[in-house]
Specification:
This protein is mainly beta and about 140 residues long. The chain has one domain. The protein is about 0% helix and about 50% strand. The two termini are about 25 Å apart.
């Protein structure tokens, strides 16, 4: 099982006991109020094209988010208990000690990925963030 040298994430779905702090970076100022959030990495996933890894981060504290949908605009309340994050930069791994710029996808309660392959379009891309590893304990 190959692992990222710096972060402890394997390339084949295994995840070391890694804690991450997700901070706001760009792309949605309204969501910035919801961050930072911390949680534990609990899974590694790839999309059907092999793009990844997407890291599932189980949040210590769930959040509520109002998602704007449709025309005319309507809102739907989301109960979010996890994020899917993936590095935005080629060659830069989530878990890098200096932090990594990431895409943040919202994962609703009861909608966690199953299996090893995900469809990122099944989740709401809410913002860009920065994933910073935290020491356990």
């Amino acid at each position: 099982m190959a692992q990222c040298a710096n972060c402890g994430f394997s390339r084949t779905l295994g995840v070391a006991k890694v804690r991450l702090r997700i901070e706001y970076d760009d792309h949605n100022e309204l969501f910035a109020k919801q961050l930072p959030r911390s949680g534990s990495a609990s899974g590694t996933y790839f999309d059907a094209s092999g793009v990844g890894p997407w890291i599932l981060v189980d949040l210590d504290e769930p959040l509520q988010y109002q998602l704007k949908v449709g025309e005319p605009f309507q809102f739907r309340a989301l109960q979010v208990d996890a994020f899917l994050v993936r590095s935005r930069w080629q060659g830069k791994e989530v878990g890098d000690p200096d932090g990594t710029s990431v895409f943040i996808l919202l994962v609703e309660e009861g909608r966690h990925p199953t299996g090893s392959v995900i469809d990122p379009k099944a989740y709401f891309h809410v913002a860009w963030g920065k994933a910073v590893p935290q020491r356990a304990g």
